[in-house]
Amino acid sequence: MRKFLHVIPLMSAVLALTSFLSVRREPAPDSDGHVLTSLWKEYAKASDADRPKKEAEILLRIKEQALAGRLMWDYYDAARKYVQVSSRRDWKLREKLEKELEQEVVAYGEPVLTFVHACDRVGRDAAWLLDFVQSHERELKSGKNAAMYKVFSPFRRSLDNYSEILLPLIGNDYEYALWMILGYWHLDDSALENAWALIDAELGGRYPEAAFAEYEYVSRISGEDNRVAALWRLAGKYEGKAAALIPRADILENEFRSMEGKASSDDYLAFRSVVKSYESERRMFRNGMDGAVAKRCAGFASIIFQLEEKSVIVNVHEGKGIFMLRNADSFKVSVVGRDGKTVYDARH
Fold it and tell me: What is the spatial distance between Cα 202 and Cα 174, in angstroms, rounded to a whole number?
């Protein structure tokens, strides 16, 4: 009996501890992706109160705790803001603080952080970025820092409208870095080809990622004729999929621009009929990933709007009015003198 009585309190303690542990949970990240939410709330209050000294103190605490917990986004955002806040207090410190930040990032030794910093603050060229990513492939593939993907989105330029689809599909930091390079502003033809080869091999035909990666690559090919030909090939490659609509919209937009000053009204009407047929095809994709892609493909609707928009342009030369109408069968002209009286009023 005595042995039994000793067991009961122990079991109770274990149950109580289990219950306590089950109740304690890590706070969900805030809207900016920060994990150290309490400290970030303190920082926000100090910032709202315009207390830069207090802001800097809190940011240093965030940096310290983030480094200890390997919370890369909390650390890097705090580090960037620390430079901004401290420079606001003394602008002469900016260069020194930027240098210290770069040294900190290197010392931290996390490849994705070094990569993001190189893009965000240092402005490394694409060749350096490609070499860095390839030499740290293994480490980058082992990490997935999704909070940083959203803040430093690789989907700019032609893919910005599809970022909500693509961001959750990034598998790891290596894929993220390749996407970032593919959309990098400073990308020459050689770097473009290398970036495309790497990401194409990594994605291995995954849909829709591979289609979007190829579209980003194709949209950056030098030479209009080469680019349009590549867009046609891409559209054919994904025939029957919503991804085919995206290069088709670019092709039609290019054709639309080329018609200016050359095409007749009949030519525009025929062209509008073609665009509307593609818009009808787009609307047929309603479900799943294709539905999500098609929903964000606004190219056809944009062209149709421009084709159907009504406008009147008036030029006055040597006392004569020249009226140029678009999509308008008639118009009314009223001429009012300086005395406010109408001297001409007619519908044409």
Answer: 9
Average pLDDT over residues 36-45: 96
Cα 216 to Cα 163: distance, rounded to the nearest angstrom: 13
Alpha carbon distance 7, 294 (integer Å): 64
CA-to-CA distance for 206 and 93, rounded, in angstroms?
47
Q: How far apart are CA 46 and CA 246, in angstroms?
A: 46
For residue 299, the one-letter residue type is G
Is the separation of the CB atoms in 70 and 54 below 8 Å? no
pLDDT, position 348:
67
Q: Is the pLDDT of residue 21 over 60?
A: no
Number of H helices, E strands in the chain: 18, 4
How many angstroms separate the CA atoms of 254 and 231, rounded? 11
Q: Residue 43 is which amino acid?
A: Y
Please identify which residue in the block is written with the tokens 């294709």: 290
Q: What is the mean pLDDT of residues 12-18?
A: 41
Confidence of residue 9 (pLDDT cuts 50, 70, 90): very low
Mean pLDDT value of segment 226-234: 97
Stated pTM of the model:
0.82
How would you class 143 by CB atoms within 10 Å of its CB: exposed for 0-12, middle for 13-18, buried for 19 or more?
Answer: middle
The per-residue pLDDT of the chain, averaged, comes to: 88
- Enumerate the β-bridge partners of residue 345: 334
- 3-state secondary structure at position 77: helix
Quote the strand ranges of 233-319, DSSP E.
311-317
Beta strands in the chain (DSSP E): 311-317, 320-326, 332-336, 342-347
Which of 40, 16, 43 lies closest to 28 in space, CA to CA?
Answer: 40
What are φ and ψ of residue 48, in 5° steps?
-65, -35
